[in-house]
Structure formats: C-alpha cells, structure tokens
Amino acid sequence: MEIRYPNGKVFKPTKNESKLKNYQYGNRGMTLEEDLNESNEYYLANKIAVIHKKPTPIQIVKVDYPQRSKAVIKEAYFKTPSTTDYNGVYKGKYIDFEAKETKSKTSIPLQNFHHHQIEHIRQVIACNGISFVIIRFSTTEEVFLLEGRFLLQFWERMENGGRKSIAKDELVQYGHQIPLGIHPRIDYLKVIDQIYD
Amino acid sequence: MEIRYPNGKVFKPTKNESKLKNYQYGNRGMTLEEDLNESNEYYLANKIAVIHKKPTPIQIVKVDYPQRSKAVIKEAYFKTPSTTDYNGVYKGKYIDFEAKETKSKTSIPLQNFHHHQIEHIRQVIACNGISFVIIRFSTTEEVFLLEGRFLLQFWERMENGGRKSIAKDELVQYGHQIPLGIHPRIDYLKVIDQIYD
User: Fold this and answer.
1) Residues near B99 by Cβ (< 8 Å), separated by ≥ 6?
2) Which of A14, A50, A68 best probes binding to B when mutated, by most B CB atoms within 10 angstroms?
3) Domains of chain A
4) B52 shares contact with chain A (CB less than 8 Å)
5) Which chain B positions have a beta carbon within 8 Å of A48's beta carbon?
6) B111 marked among binding-site residues
7) Which residue from B83, B188, B59 is spatially nearest to A88, judged by alpha carbons?
8) Distance in Å, alpha carbon of B178 to nearest chain A alpha carbon
9) What string of pLDDT tens digits covers the 197 residues of chain B?
10) CB distance from A65 to chain B under 8 Å?
C-alpha cells in the first residue's frame, strides 16, 4: 500500500522506519499472546494449571545507578530464544509450547520456528514432557494445536528437501482445532485432555 | 573493613559506588548459579532432564534502531520475578525450584524469597508439580534441598510471628543434603528420586 503525505508526495520509509515497521510486524502475534496470557491467568486463578510465558532473553551490556533511583539498563540486546516461549505444570505433567500466528490463509511457514526451538522440542519429548505448538491463522482466527512430534516430522520433511511450510490441510489432519471461548479464550488444555486421557 | 588510598586517606564510597557494591553482593549466588547451570547442561546432554534458568524479567522502555545494526535497548528496568528461577521436565514430571546462597553459617533468612515466589510455589504444589529450593551455605559449601511444602511451613511460621529464617538444623532435619560431585556438580535429581520413588 502506498502512503502519501498531505501534499500528495509518496512517503518512503527510511531504513530506521522500515526496521520499526518490521519490529511491529514481528509483534503481529500480540493478539494470540494476549489471548494465551488471558487463558493462562484463567487456569492459574482456577488452580487448573500454572503456565507462564518466559521473559524475553536479553543480553545486558551496561547498567547505570542514578542517584536515589534503582538500576537503569542503558545498553542491552535481544537474544535469540533457545527454548519455547511457554511452559508450566498441568496435573503434575510438564507442559511446553510455542505460539505462532500467520497471515497466510493456507499454511504456516516453518521459518517461524528457530532451529534451537526445534532442538528444545526434541529434548522435551525425549524426557516425556507434553510438547506442542499453537498456531493461529489471523485472517480467519482459526487456532490449531499440533503436537511437537508432528512438528518434528514436518521439520524433517523440509530438511530432506520437502516443502518449507505446514499446509493448513495438514494441520486439520494431524492437529486439533481449538474451539474459542470467553473464559478461557483458548482452552488448549481441553485438547491436551483429549490427546492424553 | 576500612579501605585506604595510597596516601593513607580513608576511602568512602559514593552513593553510586555503594549501590554497585550492593549489586555485586546481590550476585553472590553466582557460583551456585554456575554449578546449577553446569548440572543442568549435564542433565540435558545425557537426556536425563530439560531444566533451564528463566531469563531475568526486564521492563523495556526505549529501543533504538541504529543504521545497519540490530535493535539496541537504551532504557530498561529489572522487574521483580513473579516465579521461581528454574523449571523444566524430568521423567515427564514438572520440576520447579529456586536457588539461594547465604553467607550465614547457621540459617537462611526468609527475606531471600519474594512473596510472589512463595505464592508461585503454592500454586505449583496445588497442580502436583515437584517444587523445592536449593540452598547453599557459601562458607562451608554445603548444599541442601528443601521441598516447597516445608518452605511454605517455615514461611507461615514467620507470618505467625515466628523466626524470620530457617535454621540450618531445620534444613538438616526437614531437607536433604546434596552430595557435591564433578559431573554433575550438584546432582539434585538424585535427591528427587529418593523423595518420589
């Protein structure tokens, strides 16, 4: 889409503005994250599960101590997460998942996952943890849960030269659509009950 | 201890230097943290458990995007952790713990724990997670594991007007001393096996 100044001149973002745009684009998962946080708060308040989003890992370089004030971080950098974003406990079991949103209507690109996260999912499964991903198609607001073991299979297919995404049809076949509600908004533990009970 | 300049004048730390000192003092758990990280790496490499220290929660206020460089955080603040520092999976079970070091030879002050962390421990236990704390007496290098349910009892004793610390004798009685080794340095899962098997 072309954006114009009031005088009709076409707006061209500078490098910095492009980056800012990319940054905001990177936050497109905000709504999914908010819905999951609300769901986790519901689980917590009702003593159903204790599941939190992990803090973003930050490399701190410089900290100042201004007078009469607490520590201020003056230089720091985002680090690539080495694990998935969410984990916690449900009925004594370890729960571990990653949440991704896509604007695509037909598939979820596998580049949404980092290699480290795939390795982490492999490790969690090896220790009998409950591993999955939650995927939202933002245009249709459909949300799917896909077990980690299937994500690993689709990842291997890509590494063997196959397609670089998971088709929505495949999510329908191998995953579980999560019905959306009010409280909690995304009741993913209901799906976990269906799979494991 | 008095510190003197080469000219004999007594060194008095400025406010900022005092705070820096406090900050470093706050890092006195470094060695325990390093030992636990090494132990967790051992568990991970040997497919025994997947247990990580959570990133420190940071409130980001200002981010810059210098040209041809990645995002730089220019203003951020440390947030009080609302959970414990370590969690993960062992034999499918959820593992959750906090690690504290003390210079005291006789007790661990309960002020080492935040109210939020106590609440989190209560929630984890209610969901049948395995909850504990690891306490090191840095002068003797003795390390104890105390189950979360006992920590809650000592916390309640304090809230009811009792002592504000856990005596080392009580750790001996209610907790488990963890033998120190080479790989892993602190084999706390061995104690968990003893408790739960």
Assistant:
1) B29, B32, B33, B36, B85, B86, B133, B134, B135, B136
2) A50
3) 26-196 (3.40.1350.10)
4) yes
5) 127
6) no
7) B83
8) 23
9) 455 555 556 655 544 444 443 333 333 344 899 999 999 999 999 999 999 999 999 999 999 988 767 899 999 999 988 899 999 999 999 999 999 999 999 999 999 999 999 999 999 999 999 999 999 999 999 999 999 999 999 999 999 999 999 999 999 999 999 999 989 999 999 999 999 97
10) yes
